[in-house]
Design brief:
mainly alpha, single chain, 405 residues
Length: 405
């Protein structure tokens, strides 16, 4: 994503030398067009408000998620390790990009210099890579957990170390693929009408030509969007087919059995979490990739660029950053355990609220009472219920002895 200030577009018949400047609203006006001052543009006020919400919600939500998973060892199961990776990637882009990009639609020129330009572009590409590769790995983990749950044990692999190694490799791969943004991002000055010029932050050096721009746009679309979407879709189609066949082949009297219902419930809980993350990511980045492909590969894009495409570009710009703060919101509604932790940590500064919540039993206080965010198999669910039943039986038995003595 290129950090450029925008000029409100009317239809135009000629363009400046740099196509990137043209794509992101850095066009000179036609003689018949009127320059719209920044104070009269709606995006001047809307975009900073959106980015302020992204900053507050993203830091609070992802921060609480990271703190929760790091503090409570019993919550660090395999799916949640991937969730932790997603949250760290989102925090990276929120901390390093959002504060600087929030004012791009309120000022005309990039004010932060070359170092911040390189850091911002590099961190953004790392975050996108971490998100999409983690979602792909999470879909693969869900597939093998449901279709062939004993495969890793047969192969002699330990699940958690393998997951940690996979997450580490994802970060290394994302960092390597983002290197062009760190190496080639620069801050050129673009001339406007008259003798005025402004600075922009662009990852596309002019000396590389249009071929480099098209190559990078297509590469990011395929590697960060289209190919992972196809892979994830394949995993979920395989899971759906397996669950359908396993249900069909199960005897009728067993389908309504308690253990069968608990197993299906546990699988659905994790499945809803993964699906929500995947859908959010691909919806948030769809407008961005659609605009980039349209502009760079449609021959007449510069001639037909109008107010619609100007608004579409801003929507894609905002949605790509909104993706970094919505995962904790989705997790809040999907996971009851995370919702309790989230309420607990946000209300920790209000003693009366916290005491009332504790009195109602909303917040687990011991390791035995705290469940994981997501149960991944029937065995874990069964063990939890069995422990609760045994504890209850033991307490009743102890009470009876006390009364009799």
């Amino acid at each position: 994503m290129i950090h450029l200030s925008s000029l409100k577009m009317y239809n135009f018949t000629w363009q400046v030398n740099d196509s990137i400047s043209t794509a992101f609203g850095l066009e000179e006006e036609d003689e018949d067009d009127e320059y719209i001052p920044y104070v009269q543009r709606p995006e001047t006020y809307i975009v900073p408000i959106v980015f302020l919400l992204i900053l507050v919600v993203g830091v609070a939500g992802n921060g609480v998620l990271v703190f929760t998973l790091l503090r409570h060892a019993n919550m660090r199961n395999i799916p949640n390790i991937y969730v932790l990776s997603l949250a760290l990637g989102d925090l990276l882009v929120i901390v390093t990009c959002v504060p600087f990009t929030s004012i791009l639609y309120t000022i005309e020129s990039w004010p932060w210099g070359l170092a911040v330009c390189k850091l911002s572009e590099y961190a953004k590409d790392i975050s996108i890579g971490v998100s999409v590769f983690t979602l792909t790995a999470l879909a693969a983990e869900r597939y093998y957990a449901i279709v062939n749950p004993i495969r890793r044990h047969v192969a002699g692999l330990s699940a958690k170390p393998l997951t940690i190694m996979t997450v580490s490799l994802i970060w290394v791969l994302a960092s390597i693929l983002a290197l062009p943004a760190a190496l080639f991002s620069h801050v050129p000055r673009e001339p406007l009408k008259g003798n005025h010029s402004i600075a922009i932050c662009s990852p596309f050096p002019k000396e590389f030509g249009d071929g480099y721009e098209k190559t990078m746009v297509l590469f990011k679309f395929l590697v960060y969007y289209a190919i992972p979407l196809l892979i994830i879709s394949g995993f979920y189609l395989g899971m759906a087919r397996h669950l359908e066949l396993s249900t069909r082949n199960m005897p009728g009297e067993q389908q309504g059995a308690p253990h069968h219902r608990e197993q299906i419930k546990a699988r659905k809980k994790v499945g809803k979490m993964v699906v929500s993350f995947v859908v959010i990511f691909f919806l948030c980045f769809l407008p961005y990739h659609a605009f980039m492909l349209w502009f760079h590969f449609y021959p007449s894009s510069r001639e037909v660029f109008d107010e619609f495409w100007h608004a579409f570009r801003i929507i894609g710009f905002c949605l790509s950053f909104i993706n970094s703060c919505v995962n904790p919101i989705a997790l809040y509604f999907v996971s009851g355990t995370f919702r309790k932790r989230f309420n607990e940590y946000l209300c920790c500064c209000i003693p009366s609220v916290r005491r009332a919540a504790n009195a109602q039993g909303r917040f687990p206080r011991t390791r035995g009472e705290a469940s994981t965010l997501y149960e991944t198999s029937f065995n874990s669910t069964y063990r939890r219920h069995t422990q609760e039943l045994n504890s209850s039986t033991l307490l009743n038995f102890t009470g009876e002895i006390s009364k009799s003595t």
